[in-house]
Amino acid sequence: MRGFFRSFYWKISAIFLVLLLILGVVLIFPLVHFALEFSTELDQKQNQYLARDLAVEFKKIMERFPPPKSSLDFDATIDTVFPHFTGMNPTVKIYLLDDEGNIRAPLMQKLMFRVELSQFKNFTQAFASNEISLSQRVDILMTKKDKEWRIIDKDNDRMYIARKGKDSFYFYEGIQRWKVDVEPVKQFIVTLGQRNTLEKPIYGDHPLSRHRQNTFSAAEISIIEPMYLYVVLDGERHDSIIAAVKENFNRVTVSSILQIAIGNQILVFIFIGIIGLVLFFLLTKHLREMTTVVRKFERGDFRQRIAVKSNSEIDQLGIAFNEMASTIVANMDALKENDRLRRKQ
What's the pTM value of the predicted model, to 2 decimals? Predict the structure, then answer.
């Protein structure tokens, strides 16, 4: 059995399977890239008009409030309206940008924790008691006198906002960018206006990260000045891949694409592996027959000859063996005849 696994058949089979495995692994990388690109493009196309629809709803909500006469009135109204507006669709992140890309709202995201005023000592202690570690380099800036602070953790590249209420401090996750690049936003709006659809994904800055970019939807909106409603499509559901874009059996996700693709590749690997092993078995069958003939010849059965079925390299080897065997037998017969004649003399 040990000799069987050391045979030529198993050696070339092992090389074939290793090469097949390497090929499968190499193909996984473009497959993953294709799946991500496909899902990203589909996600943005499915939601390309989301910002436009939300802008209509936002203007309706703003009409319920007195028209803002100044920037301060506008900020106060936005502070009241935006938390309720963004709660309409928690699967996306919605931002209000001015025409230069500065984020006007919201500056804070989800509520992280609160600390009662009677128990509050300092900001560092408040974070530590809620199992959030701040680095050594922390800037604390007051933005509204005795009402709001920004805690900027430089080493961890994070920002938090603390607001003082009647009886507690409320701590929120803050945005990490004050400004996003407005050029992709303009490109999105112009492309959608000219062609009514997007040909390829357009990426924009993510306010929750200093470096990350995501697909988005955008629309122009005018309140007291021209602005943009900027909708980041991934929300909080994931950081590295795009979320689902279709419901029920039409739902297409990166994970499902990868599972199907990898599953298919495994099936292809098994199928090709079996076919390859069978073919190698058939190809080496003649070699095994030749080996059997040679061993029988070695044991004294000089009548053994290799059956030649074609003119292949292996059959050429068989022809050479047959000629050698015939020569050996002829020489042996000649020796026997010489020995017989010598004995007669």
Answer: 0.53
